[in-house]
Write a structure and sequence with these properties.
With 408 residues, the protein is of the alpha+beta class. The protein contains ten helices and 16 strands. Helix content is 25%, strand content 22%. A six-stranded mixed β-sheet has the order 1-2-3-7-8-5. A six-stranded mixed β-sheet has the order 6-4-14-13-12-11.
């Protein structure tokens, strides 16, 4: 049996103060904050007792809390002759916005905080305001094979009916740990990610496109979170998924606490490697943020939501370094269009009612990055390099000291 999130081998198939506050479900958060940390077990932020922001999360605290959204991963881990050749810590992730998105596109918008990266199909999203494909996440040098395979996948799914497609494929660079020029992501991995996409809980950390990624000089990767607005503010859901591969250690801030300064690279090694003749790490990397909502938004409103993801990245400690590709896309599942139609009647939210959605996006983006850090595991890659996991016991102690935990 192939795990949904794992394929081994190449052939196997708001304001800072508000976000620092402890949010809803205080009893559950307090209980989690006092629970022991089991050595070797990774835990999400809320399992540690940290609840970020004003709004409660959804059932899964994931992008899949937006009804219809599905996520799948294919993880590629191989050990070759080395010190670089054949060593793969990579993969691909698929976010499917809704059933039959090819023929029933959704309103969407994108935003680039710093453009040293790639998101194919983004110019058509920008031009048309529509998303008509899954959103795929992978490593920088596998964008081409992922794009081509997505087209082939849907040509086979709709034989004779599809003669044009611009898939959305985004990337971050995993070459610190993986043989990125080995092109280890193959068509079968892309197919596996698409076929395995499911609603419900989402695997995080070292999975799919996030397998070889680093974040604030800890091991990073895939993270997700969600928010559900109260009925008086619309009752809408906002879900976020990130592929986090950016940031310098001293800048890492979690719920307002300077975690990166409290755990310096002298305590837990970071990206600088004194045995290799490389320049000091400058915080280069990238982060892709995918925002989903069931609020009835048009394209310009989705773009406004995508921009707010940058605030969530910023309060976590990013300054959008020159070498970082910080690219965000947001979509709404509320209005499903029909490619065969000529005119559409759609529903839209008053711009003045969007403030709660902005706050929810910032909160969920911040927590998704924290979840990526908390769920990632220490990983050894090429040249003997090691990306160390964020130590959860130290994280909880720091958050307690800065009174960011429910039991503080």
């Amino acid at each position: 049996m192939i795990r949904r999130d794992f394929i081994k081998g190449s052939v196997a198939v708001a304001a800072l103060g508000a976000l620092s506050a402890v949010s809803a479900a205080p009893a559950a958060a307090a209980e989690a904050a006092s629970a022991p940390i089991i050595p070797g077990k990774r835990m999400r932020a809320r399992e540690l007792g940290l609840s970020i922001g004003r709004y409660p999360c959804g059932k899964y605290n994931a992008i899949t809390d937006v009804a219809g959204v599905r996520v799948g991963h294919a993880t590629v881990i191989k050990d070759g002759p080395g010190p670089v050749s054949g060593i793969a810590r990579t993969g691909v992730s698929a976010i499917i916005p809704c059933d039959d998105v090819i023929n029933h596109p959704l309103y969407a918008g994108m935003h680039s905080l710093n453009g040293n990266g790639e998101m194919t199909g983004s110019w058509w999203v920008e031009e048309s305001g529509l998303l008509g494909s899954p959103i795929m996440l992978t490593n920088t040098h596998s964008v081409g094979v992922v794009r081509d395979t997505v087209i082939d996948y849907y040509c086979r799914k709709y034989p004779g009916a599809l003669d044009w497609m611009l898939p959305v494929v985004a990337e971050t660079w995993d070459g610190f740990l993986s043989d990125i020029n080995g092109f280890h992501v193959r068509p079968e991995h892309v197919v596996a990610a698409l076929d395995s996409a499911a609603a419900g809980p989402v695997a995080e950390g070292c999975v799919g496109g996030g397998t070889g990624m680093c974040c604030h000089e800890f091991k990073g990767g895939i993270g997700t979170s969600s928010r559900v607005l109260p009925k008086e503010e619309g009752g809408y859901a906002v879900g976020v998924l990130v592929q986090a591969n950016y940031g310098r250690r001293p800048e890492l801030t979690i719920a307002g606490a300077p975690v990166g300064q409290e755990i310096p690279v002298s305590e837990v090694p970071g990206r600088d490697n004194p045995t290799e003749p490389v320049r000091p790490y400058q915080g280069d990397g990238s982060i892709i943020v995918v925002v989903a909502t069931d609020a009835p938004l048009l394209a310009d409103q989705c773009k406004r939501l995508a921009r707010r993801a940058g605030l969530g990245v910023g309060i976590t400690g990013s300054t959008a370094a020159d070498g970082s590709g910080d690219i965000f896309v947001a979509f709404s599942t509320a209005n499903r269009l029909d490619n065969s139609g000529e005119r559409f009647s759609v529903e839209t939210l008053n711009h003045a009612r969007m403030n709660p959605l902005f706050t929810a996006t910032v909160e969920a983006t911040h927590e998704a990055i924290v979840n990526a850090l908390c769920m990632a595991t220490t990983t050894r890659g090429i040249r003997g390099r090691v990306a160390h996991a964020l130590p959860l016991d130290r994280l909880r102690d720091i958050l307690r000291r800065y009174r960011r935990m429910q039991d503080a």
